[in-house]
């Protein structure tokens, strides 16, 4: 029973605290073994210390870890899975990104921009969500009798029951806000908001997270209190059961052939990931293709700089808020000083706040000059250094907090302790490293 109770508590809090992950958060066995080995190596000679306590310390460490993970994923997304070369990912293009955005997800081996299939895309309709718009009722009154009510939301193959109490002092607006919070916290695949008008009336708006009609189903969720465990009547009172906007599949053409999809994101030929953004003009087509190698490299550098600047900005904000340890600032200043002159020569300049600024003219000149792999090597070297820095921060962000060293270990005569990082930081291994 205790084990079951603990599992229920874990499952309840998991959606709230688990970060959004991507495919770059999954790892092969040898990668996980490498992380484990790095933990052993790092903790073997680490001194004993007392971390300062407080909410700001916890917030700083967690934010630094997440920020480092984000930078690692940015770098990973710009490199091919089976390649040891950084920033070698091919880049797709769309002639109208207001209609569709394309991303190349294929293999770089023997890929040539002239050989990779390109296609014309026309979008007639975007995939849409289901919406149940409730009835507009007076904000300040409540005619639902005081009692315990419940209703069921059926989504996918699962029924979720929601129970709530109506007190004599409750108003319609207060109850709508309470129900919106109750459902949103459950993370079951619908989003609820309270919509108000100018007449002092409000209604609940329930919208599916998913789009389209997967499996041919006409609805993505249904709300009813016909067979609920507590008192019925809330669905009719708030008007929650009526589908006001049915979900629809996306409709589009590829090279003139009609297609449909229940999502606005899909893949084509295991080479392109397409995200539909809008409907194309009648008779207009969006061309999707692969950029030449140099153009792909420039796009990768631009995306790298964007990710690096976000990493620096966030980390500096966390450091300013925490305000005790200067280790991160000092390490970044050292890395910037090493690469400053080389990067400046090819159009990447460090600003006073540590962010990078691109001079497109110099960058393109360097990219098109002879062997661009040699010309732009300072960028890949800098990227490698930042990847190492991100891995180090992600491995143990407590290294960057202010702490009191209690005892240094005797060099060369210590045992490995893989749990030191968790023991001092209170962190546990999760779905990512």
What do these coordinates show?
With 433 residues, the chain is an alpha+beta fold. It folds into three domains: 30-87 and 295-425, no CATH class; 92-127 and 249-290, no CATH class; 131-238, Immunoglobulin-like (Sandwich). It contains eleven helices and 19 strands. The protein starts with a helix and ends in an 8-residue tail after the last helix.
How is the secondary structure organized here?
Blueprint: H1 2-17, H2 29-44, E1 48-51, H3 55-77, E2 92-94, E3 100-104, E4 119-125, E5 131-133, E6 137-138, E7 147-155, E8 158-166, H4 172-186, E9 190-196, E10 201-208, E11 221-224, H5 234-238, E12 250-254, E13 257-261, E14 265-268, E15 272-276, E16 286-290, H6 293-322, H7 327-345, E17 348-350, E18 356-358, H8 360-367, H9 372-375, H10 377-395, E19 403-407, H11 420-425
Low-confidence parts, pLDDT < 50 over ≥5 residues?
1-18, 428-433
- What value does the Rg take, in angstroms? 27 Å
* Overall geometry: globular
Element order: H for helix, E for strand: HHEHEEEEEEEHEEEHEEEEEHHEEHHHEH
Tell me the major beta sheet. 5 strands, antiparallel
Query: Quick check: average pLDDT?
Result: 84
- Tell me the strand order in the biggest sheet: 2-16-4-12-13
Give the fraction of residues assigned to helices. 25-40%
Number of domains: 3
The total strand number stands at: 19
Residue share in β-strands: 15-25%
Q: Distance between termini? A: 31 Å
**Count of discrete alpha- or pi-helical segments spanning 4 or more residues:** 11
